[in-house]
Amino acid sequence: MANSGKFDGVDFSKLDIELLTPELRQLGQGFRCVRGEFVTYWKQGRIQREVDSYLCQCWMVRVEDALAGYITLLADKLQVEDALLAL
To answer: What's the pTM?
Structure first.
């Protein structure tokens, strides 16, 4: 008999993707993932620190009040067309 999962029967194509906001930071306490490093990044606050530092943007997928997954876009290189500081 197969294990019953928390999200069995959920149609993820119909869920809203939400931008991570300070109000949603507390979600994900029971977050589990096949790739353990993704759980560690979330639980140790790495994702939130990168968002707060403007290095990353994060969108969440949740079912009710449970974090089902997250998507990040990480800036690895910043290019600026105009000078930021005038000397």
So the answer is: 0.73
